[in-house]
Amino acid sequence: MVKRFHSALASKMQAKQFVSLAILAAAAALTASSAAWAASKPAAAQPQYAGYDKPYSEADVPAGPLGDSIKHGYFIVTQTKKALPNNVGNAMYCTACHQDNGQKPFAAPFVGLPAIFPQFNKRDGKIITLQDRINGCFKRSMNGKALDTAGQDMTDIVAYMNFLSRGVPLGTELNGRGFVVVSKPAQPEDAARGKLVYEAKCSMCHAADGQGMKAGDNYIFPPLWGANSYNDGAGMAQVDKAVRFIKHNMPKNAPDSLTEQEAWDVAKYIDSQPRPHFEKEKQQ
Ligand code: HEC
Ligand code: HEC
Questions:
Q1: Hey, do 58-164 and 191-283 end up sharing a CATH topology, with the first three levels equal?
Q2: Closest residue (by CA) to atom 37 of ligand 2?
């Protein structure tokens, strides 16, 4: 009798235990399947940027030769022309486009890039290194000359990008890479309409003639066209890329305030203005 009671209790407890084990197992299965689901989503859709966007501060840079390299990399990307006058053929600086020292999500951030290069590049039709990709911007966005990929300056730029990317697991593509997606406009983009957008919402900073504004030697508002701007081989010179930068990042004092139509029109206007020509032969 006692024994039976015990065994009844035991089996009741076992049943209870079974139920909670079953709940645990179900929860584990759910977790496993949602992990599998997450893994099957495009990497860019995962919310992984948070925590890697601490504003660059010299105080966080390690002391010693590696720290000196990182700090020089920072100097190059923020004051490119001053740092490398022979490699820059206009007045641009990397962070004119790669905003907030290369740390702003959806302004083609540098954060996380060392974790995903080398990778396939459509424009080149082959696997390229991070150094090759940086040189792509030197030749086109900076209308200049490629750096020696094994030289100290290139190493310093990469050291800076590595520093910004500390903690990002190898192979992880962060959400916030590149630019936002902007769908096709209701009406085809139009430069004449874009000029009106430009005059109302851009010219107060980039100037009526698109030449930007300087304080002493340094631009506070970079030029958008003309001899000091990116060349016609640059990503920004393609309307469908420029619109993706502009929609989310400009006007700088009111980002995301343009309608999609306004963003397309103003991108078309800017990119129909004169700018240096990219000569492929000269570069290779
Ligand atoms: C005029 C704007 C502009 C300037 C200036 C510029 N870039 Fe870029 N950069 C871009 C655009 C636009 C892209 C993305 C192009 C694309 O999607 O094909 C890009 C892409 C990149 C990438 C690859 C990003 C990725 O997610 O794969 C790197 C690395 C890069 N730039 C480095 C630099 C460096 C270093 C400098 C300065 C020497 C620089 N860029 C100057 C506009 C610019
Ligand atoms: C309040 C000032 C301000 C306004 C208004 C403004 N910009 Fe900018 N823009 C900047 C600054 C400053 C940068 C450099 C990046 C940075 O510091 O964030 C920049 C960078 C850019 C760049 C990339 C660098 C280059 O020179 O090509 C483009 C393109 C651009 N702006 C387009 C526009 C367009 C289009 C508008 C209007 C819809 C606009 N901006 C309005 C301040 C402004």
A1: yes
A2: 202
* Residue among 141, 174, 176, 142 at smallest CA distance from 248: 176
Angle among Cα 245, 249, 254 to the nearest 5 degrees reads 145
Domain extents in the chain? 58-164, 191-283
* Superfamily of 58-164 according to CATH: Cytochrome c-like domain (1.10.760.10)
**Tens of pLDDT along 7-54?**
433 444 344 443 344 334 434 433 333 333 333 334 444 446 777 778
Of 75, 82, 98, the one to substitute when testing ligand 1's pocket (max ligand atoms within 8 A of C-beta) is 98
Whole-structure pTM over 0.85, yes or no?
yes
**Ligand 1 atom nearest to 236, measured from its CA:** 12
For 191-283, CATH number?
1.10.760.10
Alpha-carbon distance 84 to 114, whole Å?
22
134-163 pLDDT tens trace: 999 999 999 999 999 999 999 999 999 999
> How far apart (Å, rounded) are the C-alpha atoms in residues 143 and 154?
17
Question: Quick check: bond before 255 cis, omega within 30?
Answer: no
Ligand nearest to the CA of 78: 1
